[in-house]
Specification:
binds zinc ion; globular; 62 residues; 2 helices; 16% strand; alpha+beta
Length: 62
C-alpha cells in the first residue's frame, strides 16, 4: 500500500488506531503488525466514544 506518508518515508501505520474511552483503557491498532501505538503514526484514529455513523438508523428505516 502506498500513501502520502509512505512517499515521504515517514514512520506510520496503515491500521486504524482505536483509542479507549477515558484514560484507563489501552489503545489498540487494527494492524496486527503495528509496532507503535502513537497516535501521530496513525492517519486513521477512532475514539471508542465517538458516535457511530447513521448506518443503524438507515437500516431500521429501510
Ligand atoms: Zn503509508
Ligand atoms: Zn498501528
Amino acid at each position: 500500500m502506498t500513501c502520502a506518508d509512505c512517499a515521504d518515508d515517514l514512520s506510520h501505520c496503515h491500521g486504524t488506531l482505536l483509542l479507549p474511552d477515558g484514560l484507563l483503557g489501552t489503545a489498540e491498532c487494527t494492524d496486527p503488525s503495528c509496532v507503535d501505538l502513537a497516535a501521530a503514526r496513525h492517519p486513521l484514529v477512532l475514539a471508542e466514544h465517538d458516535p457511530l455513523p447513521q448506518a443503524t438508523e438507515d437500516f431500521l428505516a429501510a
